[in-house]
Amino acid sequence: MDQFYINHWAVLVCAIANLALGALWYSPLLFYKAWKTENGLSDEELKNINPLKVYGLTFLFALIMSYNLAFFLGDDKTDMAWGATAGFLTGFGFAGLIFAVVALFERRSWRYILINGGYITVYFTLIGLILGAWRS
C-alpha cells in the first residue's frame, strides 16, 4: 500500500445513504408491506417507535460501518469498480450471509432473509461504490 486515504465527506455521505436507501427499500414503493408482514408488525406498532433513538443509532452504526469499509478501501489504487466489488463482497459474502445464518436459527422465512439480506448487500455495494469513486 503506497498511500492510505479516507475521504471523511464520502464516509458521511455513505452514512446518510444508509438512511436514504432504507427509506426507499422499506417504503410502500418496495418492500414495506412484505417486511411488515414477515415481522408481524402493525402500522400502530411502527408509529410508536422513538425516532430519535432509532434514527440516531442507525446513523451512528452506519457511520461506523462506513468508516470500517473506508479503512479497507483506503489503498490509493481503489477505484469505483473495486469499491463496488468490495462492497458487494462485504455485503453479500459477510454481512448478508451471517444475517441469513442467524435468521435460519430464528426460523425466519426466506422472504424475510431476502428482503433484509438484499438491503444489506445493496447498501454495502452502494457505499463501496461511493468510497471508491470519491477519492479526493
UniProtKB/TrEMBL annotation:
Keywords in alphabetical order: Membrane, Transmembrane, Transmembrane helix
Q: What is this protein called?
A: DUF1761 domain-containing protein
Give the signal sequence positions.
Answer: none
Q: What's the superkingdom here?
A: Bacteria
Question: Which residue ranges does UniProt annotate as crossing the membrane?
Answer: 6-31, 52-74, 80-105, 112-134
Q: Which Pfam families match?
A: DUF1761
Its lineage opens with: Bacteria, Pseudomonadati, Bacteroidota, Chitinophagia, Chitinophagales
